[in-house]
Automatic annotation (TrEMBL):
This is Acetylornithine aminotransferase. Pyridoxal 5'-phosphate binds at residues 97-98, 130, 215-218, 273. HAMAP family: ArgD_aminotrans_3. N(2)-acetyl-L-ornithine binds at residues 133, 272. It is found in: Cytoplasm. Belongs to the class-III pyridoxal-phosphate-dependent aminotransferase family. ArgD subfamily. It comes from Mesorhizobium hungaricum.
Amino acid sequence: MSGSALYETFARAPLAFERGEGSWLVTDKGERYLDFAAGIAVNSLGHGHPHLVSALKDQADKLWHVSNLYEIPGQRRLGERLVDATFADKVFFTNSGAEALECAIKTVRRYHFVTGHPERYRVITFEGAFHGRTLATIAAGGQYKYLEGFGPKVDGFDQVPFDDIDAAEKLIGPETAAILLEPLQGEGGIRSFPVQSLKRLRQLCDKHGLLLIFDEVQCGIGRTGRLFAHEWAGVTPDLMAIAKGIGGGFPMGACLATDEAARGMTAGVHGTTFGGNPLAMAVGNAVLDVVLAEGFLEEVGRKALLFKQGLAAIADEYPEVIEGIRGDGLMLGIKCSMPNGTVNGALRDQHLLAVPAGDNVIRLLPPLTVTEPDIQEGLKRIRGAAKGLSEAVAAAAK
Ligand SMILES: *Cc1c(COP(=O)(O)O)cnc(C)c1O
């Protein structure tokens, strides 16, 4: 696209959306798309959710922004609600996922600093990880495609193969400070760590005095049918980064910590201008009103099961297109038998939006508020795309 004033960092689809309603997006030409990308798990309650819209409008009439130099009641309230709902005792609000991870990494280093081990600063991560695009988080993610050309890799991150807990254990040394992982990898291709692995990682951290950090920026806030994905394993971290779904489309994130882990984060050592401002907090509180309401997460689980069963049936029908279905809750992946870009294009031709991921997977991340008819419509479109691709494969073989 020549003539654009924007950085060329995004290979954008030639689609411009003008408005959204629930799980649907409408282009400037009036065409309707079923949105199973949800801004990459950001639009947790779909588009134009009345409770979020009124929370934002009410707050906009009162106060948009004040500095963290003052009390922000909405921030205090959202912090308390996140603490009540999780392992955490303390919360720091940010504007994005990467900043939440930066806060977690800094919290780990400060913890070891104030407990007399400043030499402990290295963090072990897993292949396929994605933790953001800042200099430290591309080092944490360890993916060459995001590191190339950006100068010396930030020091302090060591990577082992996905789910190789033995390798992680071998790597632990006197400089190791923490282990960082997404319990369910998003960008890496919808890959989940088995419950046993999460339990072993918790034990390893306890044994060696390390902090365990979960990145639930994508898999948190109800995506898997529990408020946080790690709840399925019955294992709690010392620190957790969240973002995406907590804002429902308003940019925000948070780093959650135990009292012990946050020991070093005293007055003046960390800060943010925008993080936790009144507008963001009004929306974050409104998202929690909905997600924590009686029965909401059960309903996510019920709809997710329907969706996954429907997808499995399509995979059985068209193995030349779909190798298998993976993931939990409404964070599902189609492992493709042909290039995932081809499959994604065929889905878009059916006016269904999805997100390509690593490991030749297509991510399906519908809003948590997706209706059953929307799921049936989505399955119909996915079947249509698979059928078309299957026929094209058969024609090419003749
Ligand atoms: C999106 C994402 C991030 C980065 O969040 P940004 O808001 O883009 O900085 C970090 N970790 C995971 C798991 C993500 O999916």
